[in-house]
C-alpha cells in the first residue's frame, strides 16, 4: 500500500517540477482470476495482473493527461512530464479554478475481504461446474455460457493540494447465459450475482434460475402496435434509472449536451419516484469513501418525490457553477481520466407487490430486461424489449419478440404510476419494479 | 527479444503444453479534445505488455503481464499452466487448435504522414479548426460542439509453438465532431467520424466543411424533424444502416465461436439459404484503408477475404485456430485481441453486403408507403435468438414513390433471417462509412461495415407516434 502512495506522490512532485500549476496522480495494482464457460464447458482460465499510473496536470486551466502501464518511479516521473507537456499545448481554460482540498472522509467498512482475496482458482472452477450442472438439471439440452471472476486491487491518489488517499477492495461475480433451442424456438436468459464480501455472495442457483427463465422465454411472439402500460422488472429499472441519473452529469449540463439542462430543482418525474445514492454503504458494489478526486462522499437523495435535487458535480463543474462539490468524480482505472457518475442507487419502494402491479394491467408489457436508456442528449427513447412478456387481463401470457418502445425520458418518468414493494438487491443497490402508465409500443401486428 | 520469446514457448512445450502463443506489444497514443472553442484536454498514453496462452490437455490457461522481461514471462508461464491444470478436470469439451504452417514476417506501419512527425500544436490546431466550423454554422442554435482527434503507433510480436514469428507495426488515426443544436425544448445532435489504420493524412485530407459542417447541418436539420412513427414499414436503408445491419444482425452470427457455442442462428446452416437470393455478404480485412483492415490476425494467420453468403446461401464462418479445429474448417485469420490483456477471439473486420443492380431512385419510385432510413450510431444483437436492434439517425417518409416528412428518433428491430429474407432490392452503389469500434466479450476492436442502399419489406420501427 505504501508503495502505491509513493508512486502517486512522486508523480505529483515531478509534475510540479515540470511546471504544472496543479496536478494529481492515480495508480492502481490489481489481480483478477477469471474462469470462462463456453458451450457448457470450462473454456478459459486466466490470471490477469494489471498495474499502472496516470497523471492530470493543469496549465492555465487546460488539462494534460498521461498514463503508463507500469509502476516504476522513473516511469511515474516520465508520465508526469508528459502530462505537463500535454497541458502546455492546451488552450487556457478560465473555468478551471483549483483541484479540491483534502476533506475528512468516513471509512466504508467491508470493501476488502481477506477470505475472498485468498480464494484459490479451483473454487471458481467448481462454481462454474456447478452452474452448468444446475442448468442441465433444469433442461438437459441447455447450453450454458458465462463464468466467474475474482478480483482484488488497491489504489492510491495524490494531489498538489495535499490529498493523499489509498484503499483496497475485493469483488466476486458469477453469471450464466443459458440458451435452450427446441425445434427452431430459442429461449435464452441470464442470471448473475456479485459482491465484495464472500458472505454476501450467493453463487448457488444462478445456473438454475437462468435455465428456468430461458425455458419461460420459449415461444416468443410479437404484439400489436398500440399505446399500453409497461412494467419494468428490476434489471430493466436498473438501466433506466442509471441512465437518467447519468444525464444529470453537471459537465454535460453545463455544456448543453444533456436533456436535463435547466431541470435542477424541477419536477422531472412522477412524485412516486425517489432515488437515493448511498456511496458509503458497507460492502456496496459502488461504495467508496472518496470520489475520483479524493473528495469525501456523502449519501443524498438525487430525485426526491419526482424532483431532481442536484446535478452531479466534480471539482471543475462545482467551481464553474459556484456550488458545493457533490463528490461525483469517477475514475474507471489508471488509463482513463476523471469523469462524473453516481455510485449505489436505491429506488424508494412502493406499497404494492410486483404481482399486484401486474394484476392491475388489462393489456401491457412486462420488461424483464430492456435497454430503455434515453439518449443522454435528446432524452429520446427507441428501444427493443430484449426479454419480456405480454400482460393480458392481469397475467403474464407469452414472451415477446420484435417488440419496441418509442418514447422520451420525461414521458417515461412522468408516467410512473406505481413502484413495487418487492425488489432485487445487490450490495448497496435496491431495485424495485416500475410501472409506467402508457407508452407507444411498436410490433409486427 | 526473439530468443527470450522462443525460450518461453519452448518451456511451455517442455512443461506439457500442446500449444502456446505469446503476444508482446507496446505503443503510444495521443488524443486532443476540443469543446466550445477550447482545446482543453490533451492526453498521451503509453501501453506495453505481453499475453501468454497455453493449451494443456484440452484446457486453456492465459496470463498477461504489463512488464516484459524473461523473469516476468516465466512467471506468466507458471500462472497460465497452473490455471489450465486447475480447470482440466472440469473441461468437458476440450480445447484444440488447427495446425497451420508457421509464418515469419515483418509488417511495417504504413503512413503517408507519421503522426509523430506532425508537431502537437499543428494537430491541436487542425481539430480546433474542425470544431470552429461546426460551432460557427449557427451561433444561436448550435449550443455545443465537441471535436476529438486521436492517433496511435504500436508494435506487436505474435509468436507461437508452430514456429510463427511476426512483427507487426500499426498506425491509426481518428477524428470525430459532434454538434448539438437546440430550439426551444428540442435538443438534437449529429456526429461525423472517421477512423482508419493510417497516418495523419486522414486529418490532412478531411475537408472541415464537408466533415464538421455536415455534422452541424445534420443536427440543425433534425430540429425540424418530427418524432418517428411506430409500426411496420417497408424501408430503404442507406449504406451506413446497411453496414450496421449486416454487422450486428448477421456478422456476429457468422463468428464461429458463437456457432460452436450454440449461440448462433446460423449453426448448421452451411449450404442453406439464410437471406434473399439478392443478398451476398463478405468480410474482407484485406480491403485497403478501411478501419477493420489488417495483414495478420492476432494468432499470426494471414488476413483473407471471407465470402460468407453468396446469392442468399451461407458458405462459411469466420474462424480462429480453435473454431477451425473444432469445426473441421480452414483457419481464415479472424481472431483478434484488444490488447495483451485479452485472449484473441473471433472478430469481424470490414463486413458488407455486395452491390446489386438497382438504383436508389428506382427503389424510392417503387415504394408506395415506407421509410428511407439514413445513418445510425449503434446497434446490438442477441445472437442466440437472432434478434437485432439498429439505431437510426434520420428517417424520411416515402409516399407513392416520393420522399416526404423528415423524422427523428427511430430504431429498427427484427429477427435476422426473417429480415434478410425480405430484402427485395439491392442498390448498385457500395460505400463504407461506419469505421468504429465493436464490443464483444469485453473487448473493443476497430471494424468497418458498409454496403449499398437496399430495400427490406415489413420492418418494425420503434417510433414515438402511431400514425
Fold and architecture overview:
- The complex is a heterodimer of chains A (445) and B (467).
- Chain A has 445 residues and is α+β, with helices and mostly antiparallel strands.
- Chain A is 23% helix and 38% strand.
- Chain A has helices at residues 2-17, 73-88, 114-117, 121-138, 206-216, 234-246, 250-254, 315-321, 354-359, 409-414, and strands spanning 22-38, 41-59, 62-68, 143-159, 164-182, 185-195, 226-232, 275-277, 300-304, 307-308, 329-330, 339-340, 345-347, 363-369, 380-384, 387-392, 395-399, 404-408, 416-426, 429-442.
- In chain A, strands 7, 14, 15, 16, 17, 18, 19 and 20 form an 8-stranded mixed β-sheet that branches. A 6-stranded antiparallel β-sheet of chain A has the order 3-2-1-4-5-6. In chain A, strands 10-9-8-13 form a 4-stranded antiparallel β-sheet, with helices on one face.
- Chain B folds into 2 domains: 2-224, PmbA/TldD superfamily (PmbA/TldD fold); 227-461, no CATH class.
- Chain B is globular.
- Helix content of chain B is 22%, strand content 40%.
- The longest helix of chain B has 18 residues, at 70-87.
- Chain B has 10 helices and 26 strands.
- Chain B is of the alpha+beta class and 467 residues long.
- At the A-B interface, β1, β2, β3, α2 and α4 of A face β2, β3, α2, α3 and β5 of B.
- β2 (41-59) of chain A pairs parallel with β3 of chain B, so a sheet runs across the interface.
Amino acid at each position: 500500500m505504501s508503495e502505491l502512495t509513493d508512486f502517486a506522490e512522486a508523480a505529483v512532485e515531478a509534475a510540479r517540477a515540470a511546471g504544472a500549476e496543479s496536478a494529481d496522480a492515480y495508480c492502481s495494482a490489481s489481480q483478477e482470476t477469471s474462469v470462462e464457460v463456453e458451450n457448457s464447458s470450462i473454456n478459459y482460465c486466466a490470471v490477469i495482473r494489471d498495474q499502472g499510473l496516470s497523471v492530470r496536470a493543469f496549465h492555465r486551466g487546460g488539462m494534460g493527461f498521461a498514463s503508463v502501464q507500469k509502476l516504476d518511479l522513473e516511469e511515474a516521473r516520465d508520465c508526469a512530464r508528459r502530462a505537463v507537456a500535454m497541458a502546455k499545448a492546451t488552450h487556457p481554460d478560465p473555468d478551471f479554478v483549483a483541484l479540491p482540498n483534502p476533506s475528512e472522509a468516513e471509512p466504508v467498512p467491508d470493501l476488502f475481504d481477506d477470505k475472498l482475496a485468498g480464494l484459490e482458482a479451483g473454487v471458481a472452477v467448481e462454481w462454474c461446474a456447478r452452474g452448468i450442472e444446475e442448468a442441465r438439471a433444469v433442461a438437459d439440452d441447455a447450453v450454458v455460457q458465462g463464468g466467474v471472476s475474482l478480483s482484488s486491487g488497491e489504489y492510491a491518489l495524490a494531489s498538489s493540494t495535499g490529498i493523499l488517499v489509498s484503499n483496497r477492495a475485493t469483488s466476486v461475480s458469477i453469471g450464466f447465459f443459458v440458451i435452450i433451442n427446441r425445434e427452431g424456438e430459442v429461449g435464452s436468459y441470464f442470471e448473475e450475482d456479485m459482491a465484495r464480501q464472500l458472505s454476501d455472495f450467493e453463487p448457488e442457483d444462478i445456473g438454475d434460475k437462468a435455465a428456468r427463465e430461458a425455458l419461460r422465454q420459449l415461444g416468443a411472439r410479437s404484439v400489436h402496435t398500440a399505446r399500453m402500460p409497461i412494467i419494468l422488472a428490476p434489471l430493466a429499472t436498473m438501466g433506466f434509472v442509471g441512465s437518467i441519473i447519468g444525464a444529470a452529469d453537471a459537465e454535460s449540463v453545463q455544456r448543453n449536451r444533456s436533456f436535463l439542462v435547466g431541470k435542477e430543482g424541477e419536477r422531472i418525474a412522477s412524485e412516486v419516484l425517489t432515488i437515493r445514492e448511498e456511496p458509503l454503504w458497507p460492502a456496496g458494489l459502488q461504495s467508496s469513501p472518496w470520489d475520483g478526486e479524493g473528495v469525501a462522499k456523502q449519501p443524498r437523495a438525487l430525485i426526491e418525490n419526482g424532483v431532481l435535487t442536484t446535478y452531479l458535480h466534480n471539482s471543475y463543474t462545482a467551481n464553474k457553477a459556484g456550488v458545493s462539490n457533490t463528490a461525483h468524480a469517477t475514475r474507471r482505472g489508471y488509463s482513463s481520466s476523471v469523469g462524473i457518475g453516481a455510485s449505489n442507487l436505491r429506488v424508494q419502494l412502493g406499497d404494492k407487490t410486483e404481482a399486484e402491479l401486474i394484476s392491475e394491467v388489462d393489456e401491457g408489457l412486462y420488461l424483464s430486461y430492456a435497454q430503455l436508456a434515453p439518449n443522454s442528449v435528446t432524452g429520446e427513447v427507441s428501444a427493443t424489449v430484449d426479454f419480456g412478456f405480454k400482460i393480458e387481463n392481469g397475467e403474464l401470457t407469452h414472451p415477446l419478440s420484435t417488440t419496441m418502445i418509442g418514447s422520451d425520458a420525461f414521458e417515461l418518468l412522468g408516467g410512473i404510476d406505481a413502484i413495487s414493494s418487492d425488489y432485487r438487491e445487490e450490495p448497496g443497490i435496491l431495485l424495485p419494479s416500475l410501472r409506467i402508465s402508457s407508452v407507444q409500443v411498436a410490433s409486427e401486428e | 527479444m526473439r530468443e527470450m520469446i522462443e525460450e518461453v514457448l519452448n518451456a511451455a512445450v517442455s512443461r506439457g503444453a500442446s500449444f502456446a502463443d505469446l503476444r508482446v506489444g507496446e505503443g503510444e497514443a495521443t488524443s486532443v479534445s476540443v469543446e466550445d472553442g477550447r482545446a482543453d484536454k490533451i492526453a498521451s498514453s503509453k501501453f506495453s505488455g505481453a499475453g501468454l496462452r497455453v493449451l494443456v490437455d484440452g484446457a486453456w490457461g492465459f496470463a498477461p503481464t504489463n512488464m516484459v522481461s524473461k523473469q516476468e514471462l516465466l512467471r506468466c508461464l507458471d500462472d497460465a499452466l497452473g490455471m489450465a491444470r486447475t480447470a482440466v478436470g472440469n473441461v468437458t469439451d476440450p480445447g484444440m487448435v488447427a495446425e497451420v504452417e508457421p509464418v515469419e514476417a515483418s509488417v511495417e506501419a504504413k503512413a503517408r504522414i507519421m503522426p509523430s512527425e506532425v508537431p502537437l500544436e499543428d494537430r491541436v490546431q487542425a481539430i480546433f479548426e474542425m470544431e470552429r466550423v461546426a460551432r460557427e454554422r449557427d451561433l444561436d442554435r448550435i449550443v455545443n460542439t465537441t471535436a476529438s482527434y486521436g492517433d496511435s503507433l504500436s508494435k506487436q510480436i505474435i509468436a507461437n509453438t508452430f514456429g510463427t514469428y511476426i512483427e507487426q507495426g500499426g498506425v491509426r488515426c481518428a477524428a470525430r465532431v459532434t454538434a448539438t443544436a437546440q430550439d426551444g425544448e428540442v435538443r438534437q445532435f449529429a456526429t461525423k467520424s472517421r477512423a482508419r489504420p493510417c497516418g495523419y493524412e486522414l486529418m490532412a485530407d478531411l475537408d472541415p466543411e464537408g466533415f464538421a459542417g455536415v455534422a452541424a447541418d445534420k443536427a440543425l436539420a433534425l430540429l425540424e424533424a418530427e418524432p418517428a412513427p411506430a409500426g411496420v414499414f417497408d424501408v430503404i436503408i442507406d449504406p451506413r444502416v446497411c453496414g450496421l445491419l449486416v454487422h450486428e444482425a448477421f456478422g456476429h452470427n457468422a463468428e464461429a465461436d458463437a456457432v460452436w457455442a450454440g449461440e448462433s442462428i446460423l449453426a448448421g446452416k452451411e449450404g442453406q439459404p439464410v437471406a434473399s437470393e439478392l443478398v451476398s455478404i463478405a468480410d474482407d480485412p484485406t480491403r485497403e484503408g478501411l478501419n477493420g483492415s489488417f495483414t495478420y490476425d492476432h494468432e499470426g494467420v494471414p488476413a483473407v477475404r471471407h465470402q460468407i453468403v453468396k446469392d442468399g446461401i451461407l458458405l462459411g464462418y469466420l474462424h480462429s485456430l480453435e473454431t477451425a479445429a473444432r469445426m473441421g474448417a480452414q483457419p481464415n485469420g479472424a481472431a483478434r485481441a484488444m490488447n495483451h490483456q485479452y485472449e484473441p477471439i473471433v472478430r469481424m473486420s470490414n463486413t458488407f453486403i455486395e452491390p446489386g443492380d438497382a438504383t436508389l431512385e428506382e427503389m424510392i419510385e417503387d415504394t408506395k408507403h415506407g421509410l428511407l432510413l439514413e445513418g445510425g450510431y449503434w446497434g446490438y444483437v442477441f445472437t442466440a435468438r437472432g434478434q437485432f436492434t439498429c439505431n437510426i439517425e434520420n428517417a424520411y417518409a416515402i409516399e407513392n414513390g416520393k420522399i416526404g416528412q423528415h423524422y427523428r428518433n427511430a430504431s429498427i428491430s427484427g429477427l435476422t433471417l426473417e429480415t434478410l429474407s425480405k430484402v427485395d432490392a439491392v442498390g448498385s452503389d457500395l460505400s463504407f462509412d461506419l469505421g468504429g469500434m465493436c464490443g464483444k466479450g469485453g473487448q473493443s476492436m476497430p471494424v468497418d461495415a458498409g454496403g449499398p442502399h437496399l430495400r427490406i419489406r415489413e420492418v418494425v420501427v420503434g417510433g414515438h407516434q402511431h400514425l
